[in-house]
Amino acid sequence: MQAGEEGSIKLINDLIDSLLPSELSEADRAAGSKALWSLQTEAVAIERADRQIERMRADVWAPFERCARVLDHFGYLDFASERVTDRGRWLADLRVDRPLLIGEALQRNLFTSLDAKRAAALIAAVTADEDRDYGEMELDDEIVTLLAKFDEITFEVSTEEWKQRIEPAPEINFSAAAAAAHWASGVDWPTLVRETRAEEGDMVRLLSRTGEALLQIAGLRETHLEAAKSAATAAEIVLREPVR
Prior knowledge:
Layout: H1 2-19, H2 26-38, H3 40-73, E1 77-78, E2 83-84, H4 86-92, H5 99-107, H6 116-127, H7 141-163, H8 174-184, H9 189-196, H10 200-218, H11 225-238
Antiparallel strand pairs: 1-2
């Protein structure tokens, strides 16, 4: 151990000697060597800070940059000028699961003129856990077509996320869409629970999340008036007793 320490000290002394001008006197070289050795503590602190900065860059900045580039691709950020676009401002106010997917659906007018049943079905499909089963209730052709269009949006967003090494959002839940559509159509609670074979608590959770997300969209009257109206109507129906 001692030999190793002596070797390290000799190596540092040799490096210090190589940094000092050759024309210095012995006294000046000794003073210079002493001054450089006195900076060891500060040098160690600076090196440690550099390592911490690199770790923070990897843990914080790199994931943020990847997300920002996805948002830039879809027009919610201007990454080059470090600016939030008008589209990004209303998206930031949208407190929902998978906001980018819903934002793109809004931008492409997927919510415009939807009745309560279809609006509830679409949002339930997005907000529900991917692996949760809500039975096999039938979906009508209009809702199937709507979900297929939304699936195209999901594919586009996922493709861009893959490019940035971001784990794509889970797939939408068709059984949740069917359950919410039937509830929004006026099916009574006992029938819904029986047909879905779901626990009542699970159904309340699904419909509460669906209703809350619809209320978020209903708040976008300044930018998406028709979608906001449809969402407000659907939210009122979905959040009826015993959901709320």
